[in-house]
Each structure stands twice: as C-alpha cells, then as structure tokens.
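About this split. The held-out portion is used to measure sequence recovery: a designer receives only the structure tokens and must propose an amino acid at every position. Recovery is the fraction of positions where the proposal matches the reference. Here is one held-out target exactly as it appears in the evaluation file.
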C-alpha cells in the first residue's frame, strides 16, 4: 500500500508540474501536455491521485478508505474521460494512441 501511495504521489506531483508549465508567463491558449505519463494517458494527474488513494486504502485496510478510493476512481475517471474527449475535439494532432486514464489499458 505504501509503495502504491508513494508512486501515486510522485506521478501526481510530476504531472501537475507539467500542467503548470504548459504555458510561459503571458501566454494564452491551450496546449497538449507532453512528458511523463502524459505520453500514455490524458489523465496522468488523475491516475496518480487515484493510485495514491488506492495505496492509502490498501495500507489502512478500512472500509472508509476503500470507499473513498472507489469514489475517487469514479469521479476522476469521469473527469479524465471528459478531458480526453475535449482534447480529441480541440486538437487534430492529439495523439490517438493515448489512453484515457490507465496506461496501455483504458
């Protein structure tokens, strides 16, 4: 559980770093995130957060933490799907091989 939580945190922090640095100061408009797990999935930051909470649930072994992890999966999974559809509509050159949330799977 701890290893999953720590891995998820690292993925989440790095993915958020990529998103924060998409635009230079003063720039406007949207860009396609590149680097890290964004090379494989649209919702790299969401994947990291979900992994964090599932790791926490495994480590703590409580019904409440498992319920929170499952709710997080449904909420962030839905957001990742919406973001994926938006990117596909907004950018003709959006990588078609990118999955929505889980690398190489979904």
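Reference sequence for scoring:
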């Amino acid at each position: 559980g701890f290893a999953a939580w720590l891995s998820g945190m690292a993925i989440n922090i790095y993915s958020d770093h990529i998103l924060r640095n998409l635009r230079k100061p003063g720039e406007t408009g949207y860009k396609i995130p590149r680097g890290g797990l964004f090379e494989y999935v649209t919702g790299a930051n969401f994947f990291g957060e979900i992994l964090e909470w599932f790791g926490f649930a495994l480590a703590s072994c409580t019904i409440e933490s498992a319920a929170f992890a499952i709710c997080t999966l449904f909420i962030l999974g839905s957001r990742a799907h919406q973001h994926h559809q938006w990117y596909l509509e907004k950018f003709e050159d959006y990588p078609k091989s990118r999955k929505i949330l889980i690398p190489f799977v979904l």
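Annotator remark: Residues 2-25+35-90 form one domain.
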